[in-house]
Amino acid sequence: MENKFFISYTINDHIEQILGQGGELAYLIKGENRAVLIDGLEGAGSLKAFVRELTDLPVTLILTHGHLDHLGAAFEYRECMIHPDDMELFYDPRHFSRESRLGFAKVPSPLASHQLASLSIDDVVEGCTVRMKPLYDGDVLDLGGIELEVIGVPGHTWGTLVFLDRKDRILFSGDAVNINTLLGMKGSASVEDYLESLHHLKDFDDAYDVMYGGHGTSCVLRSIVDDAIAMCERIIARTDEKIPSFSLDHEPVYYASDHNPDYSPKCGGLANIQYKEEEILKGTAKKYRSL
To answer: Which helix (H) or strand (E) holds 87?
Structure first.
């Protein structure tokens, strides 16, 4: 299904992938009794109305983390489920404001569906206070016939969560593990903390085959976790390539490997990592606080 703002792709008879203006992704998983919407895009267009065309079930919005390209629909549903460590990050003006979210939607992206030159502030859902319910590592969401297990993977943010569907052998990974995993941002964990999270995720290796993430419509093999572990170990050992760059917060960072145009590492494997030199070891990266 497609409209001015979104395109949906059917993964199977109860899972829809929804592509937003900036190339970011959400997932609608329909059980027998209710549905969950994993992530809410940036808020350009009414995702809630689009989802209503896809299901009549009651829908709960759950967030992989609190960044601007994942939280937009929370302002329509007026509530969401999120890890407590990302609740304050959610309200950071860089993620909360309409102007920031419009800017994200209008930046050219090879992953975007059909960006509109006429996109304006009036197309972006206005921010509001959102009722937040906590989600934690180990929680299970029962949709009726389908269960989603919650796995904490602190790294990209301290509150990053992924969701495991054992029935379909799919992990919905958000921005937790991808070819361009961004650490070194406000609210990110250290490289050592991220490595610990990846080892925790490895405990679920036998439960899924592929990941569907927050960007890039194709699925990714779970072997990306091994590649990310190896890259973290190189950073910690100071044997990575240490390519200078800038974070989305406009602060100096490094890439562990020189990269291709899609940010995949030229050295091989699937996982590249951006990080701050001063936030490699445990205890060096603080959790986000607004004060």
So the answer is: helix 87-90
pLDDT of residue 2: 87
Instruction: List the strands of the sheet with 7-12, edge to edge.
Output: 7-12, 15-19, 25-30, 35-38, 59-62, 79-82, 131-134
pLDDT score of 113: 57
67-82 pLDDT tens trace: 999 999 999 999 999 9
Return the H-helix or E-strand segment holding 194: helix 191-202
* pLDDT tens-digit readout, 54-65: 999 999 999 999
Class of domain 1-135: alpha beta
What does the domain layout of the chain look like in residue ranges?
A: 1-135, 144-286
The span from the CA of 227 to the CA of 179, in Å, is 10
Sequence-ordered list of residues with C-beta below 8 angstroms from that of 23, at least 6 positions apart, any chain: 109, 110, 111, 112, 113, 215, 216
- Contacts for 20 with CB less than 8 Å, ≥ 6 apart: 5, 6, 26, 41, 42, 44, 45, 47, 69, 72, 105, 113
